[in-house]
Amino acid sequence: MAELSLAGVQEHDAPSRTRRRAVRIATDTFFYALMTALAVLFLAPLAWMITASLRPENKVLALPPAFVPRDFQWQNYQEVWDVIPQYLFNSVKLAAINVVGVTFVASLAAYAFARLQFRGRDLAFSILLSTLMVPGIVTLIPLYIIYKEIGWVDTHFPLWVPRVLHSVFAVFLLRQFFKQIPQDLEDAARLDGASTFEIYWRIMLPQVTPALTAVGIFTFLDSWNDLFGPLIFLNSADLQTLPVALKLFQGEYFSQVSVLMAGATISIIPVVIIFLFAQRFFLRGIVMTGFK
User: In a structure prediction context, what are the per-residue pLDDT tens digits for the chain, which is 292 residues long?
Assistant: First the structure.
C-alpha cells in the first residue's frame, strides 16, 4: 500500500517538475537574449567608431550607415600617428606615475585606518570621506592660484601630485579590504619580531592584490581620460596629453571625423589591453570589498 502511495506521489510530482524545468529554461533563454541584445546595443557605438576610422572623410556620415567600409583608409591612422607621439608619451608617463603613487600612498593610509589604533582615527577618516562631497569645480580657482604662486602652472605636477596625495576613494576601497584580513596573520608576524612597516609590506599588502588592481585600473582610467586638468594647468604643446590631442582634429566649423575616430581608437587600445589582462583581479577586488 505504501509503495502504491509513493508511486502516486511521484507520478503527481512529475508534471510539476517538468513545468518548473520549462519555466527555468524559458527564464534563462529570456535573460541571455536580453543580455545579448544589451551587449550589441552598447558595442554598436564602439563598432561604428572603429569602422568610421577606416573610411574616407566624405563617407563617414553617409546614409544609410554601413558598419563595414568598402575601402579601408589606413591613411587616417598615419595622419594621427604623425601628430600624437608626444601626447601619447605624456599620457603614459602621467598614468604610470599616478598608478604607482596612488596604490602606494593610498595603501599606506588605508592600512593605518584599518589596522592601527591611534587617537582620532575614526574622526580623521570621517573628515577624509567628507571631502568627497566638495565638488572639484569649487576648488579649481584656489588651486590654480596656489599652483601659480609655487610655479606649478604649465608643469605636470598639478596632474599627479593632488591625485596621489588625495585619493579618497582608493583609501576607502583598500581600507574595506584590509579590514577583512584575519587579525591572526598580523599577530603572528608581531610575535616573530616584524615591525609595523614589515607587516604592511610583507604580510598585508600581498593579501590585497585584487583591491590594488582595482585601484590601479580606476586610477589609470582617471588619469588617461583627464581632459579638464591639462586644458586648465598646461600651456605648452609639448606637455599636453592624448585627450587634448584629440581636440586638435575638431575645429570650430569643421571636424575631421574619420581622423578623430582613428585617434579615439588608438586611445582606447591601452585601456582594453590592461582590462583584459587584469579583469580577474579587478572583478574580485570589487566584489570582495562589498561593491556589486
Answer: 545 454 554 555 566 777 788 888 888 899 999 999 998 888 888 888 888 888 887 777 777 666 677 778 888 888 888 888 899 999 999 999 999 999 999 999 999 999 888 898 999 999 988 888 888 888 888 999 999 999 999 999 999 999 999 889 999 989 988 988 888 888 888 888 888 888 889 889 888 888 898 899 889 999 999 988 999 999 888 999 998 888 777 764 456 788 888 888 888 888 888 878 777 766 665 555 544 4
Answer for the pair 219, 170: CB distance below 8 angstroms, yes or no. yes
Using the structure block, give the residue that is written with the C-alpha cell 602621467: 94
- Distance in angstroms (rounded) separating the CA atoms of residues 31 and 49: 28
Residues in Cβ contact with 164 at an 8 Å cutoff, skipping those fewer than 6 apart: 97, 98, 101, 102, 105
Cα–Cα distance list, 15 to 6, 22, 27, 142 (Å): 15, 10, 18, 72
β-sheet bridge partners, residue 255: 250
> What pTM, to 2 d.p., does this model score?
0.80
Q: What does 98-162 look like in DSSP terms, one character per residue?
A: HHHHHHHHHHHHHHHHHH---TTHHHHHHHHHHGGGS-GGGGHHHHHHHHHHTT-TTSSHHHHHH
Sign of torsion, CA 187 189 190 196? Answer: negative
Nearest to 204 by CA among 220, 225, 190: 190
Strand partners, 250: 255
